[in-house]
Design a protein that fits this description.
The protein has a single domain, classed as Immunoglobulin-like (Sandwich), CATH 2.60.40. A hairpin with a 3-residue loop joins strand 8 and strand 9. Helix content is about 5%, strand content about 40%. By secondary structure, it is mostly beta strands. The strands form four sheets. A five-stranded mixed β-sheet has the order 5-12-11-8-9, with no helix packed on it. A three-stranded antiparallel β-sheet has the order 6-7-10, with no helix packed on it. Strands 1-2 form a two-stranded antiparallel ribbon. Bound molecules: fe (ii) ion. Fe (ii) ion (FE2) binds next to loops.
Length: about 150
């Protein structure tokens, strides 16, 4: 029974035990783990050992969102919400599968599906990051704009 050893099955299989160095972790350092098989999404305060559909998930590296093109994250303020959009395909093979807003102490995540529009609304909290995950091109992020 692996639980008796205090390590997870995934850790046993990789021979790597993850010591949590993120005891004071906060969501500005959030990690996203996405299952390449079923699309499951795990968010964590920092790195950890997570698995889904029989394989170990690796944390997604967030790339700075470009200013233009399909992975540009556009944001405008509408009343007390951030209105986030991408001009990105939303087909079955290529789509934005979630958009998230992370601050130091909170995370809001909207799951998206093909044929929907690539958009989300988030109640504005403190400053942080906006993330968009494309099933083909990975994770993009930008800092939230200054609140006006
Ligand atoms: Fe894409």
């Amino acid at each position: 029974m692996p639980g008796a050893l205090g390590v997870s099955v995934a850790e046993l299989l990789t021979g790597e035990v993850r010591e949590n160095a993120n005891r004071a972790g906060n969501l500005l350092r959030a990690k996203f783990y996405v299952c390449p098989i079923c699309g499951n999404v795990v968010t964590a305060l920092g790195e950890g050992a997570f698995s889904c559909c029989g394989s170990q998930l690796m944390p997604q590296d967030a790339e700075d969102a470009p200013d233009e093109g399909p992975h540009a994250i556009k944001v405008e303020r509408i009343e007390d919400e951030w209105y986030v959009t991408l001009d990105h395909p939303m087909t079955k093979d290529h789509f934005v599968s979630f958009i998230a807003y992370a601050t130091m102490d909170g995370m809001q995540l909207r799951k998206l599906y093909p044929e929907q529009s690539a958009e989300a609304r988030f109640r504005i909290g403190s400053s942080g990051y906006l993330y968009a995950f494309c099933n083909r091109h990975g994770l993009f992020r930008m800092r939230t704009p200054r609140r006006r």
